[in-house]
Amino acid sequence: MIILDGGMGQELVKRAGKATDLWSMQALMDMPTLVRQVHDDYFSAGAQIATTNTYSVLPDRLETKGLGEHLLPLTKSACEMAVAARDAHGSGQVAGSLGPLGFSYQPDKSPPAEQAAEVYAQMARLHSDYVDFHLLETMSSIDQVRGGLMGAGVTGKPVWVSLSVDDTDGTKLRSGEPLANIITILKDYSPAVVLINCSLPEAISQGLPVLTGHGFTLGAYANGFTGIHSDFNSINATVDLLEARKDLGPTEYLTFARAWAEGGALIIGGCCEVGPDHIAVLSKYFGV
To answer: What is the value of pTM for the model shown?
Structure first.
């Protein structure tokens, strides 16, 4: 078993006590030491992978705010912090996070695959000097997956792709497309790992069986939201629209993780609202 880290953005909001429409990117500009602290705490909890705080460090997010010139320095800063935390810990890997273009959970706002691929190729090249592999996160439609895999593969480094499924029916992507329809593309591009992320753990439990039996190395990392608020639908939305569950503490999360492992998942971690305490329980149980 490989243990991923947990969520970065919500952990930063919790520690800083504020949310903005640029968070967690805001932390790179205002409180970079806090980002490093979160990485350190995940390693101390038993995580074996540090995910760079670059989920939202994308051209469309920055340009919308008139911050396009910050793309390179923010990317470099985020990657260097993850590497420094890994090196201080003495072991582990660094995953270069590549979030969805347009906005999370809104694949209809994403550019077409060919256009998206150009952006992901640009970002993968910026990450490549620092990361061990590229991690496409919260890919919510077949076209998003295609664009991400087309672009991120340019560096020759391994690519992990993480799919986000419908919270009410984990056998579907958030686009409404059947999860089973993604299998052909995954086989065409052969990502090193296929995961499901940033969905309710119950939905992930529904989705993982759809992906089993196809030769993929599988993983999972759920969020701890009650669901995705309908107003959380644009670059200007803030994460305080999203309510944390009260019934998903470390012990409850482990119950889901055990079932994922029994179903074949070899990589398990956490997404939004899943923090160091959750990762510590996972690490202890799985003997990492």
So the answer is: 0.92
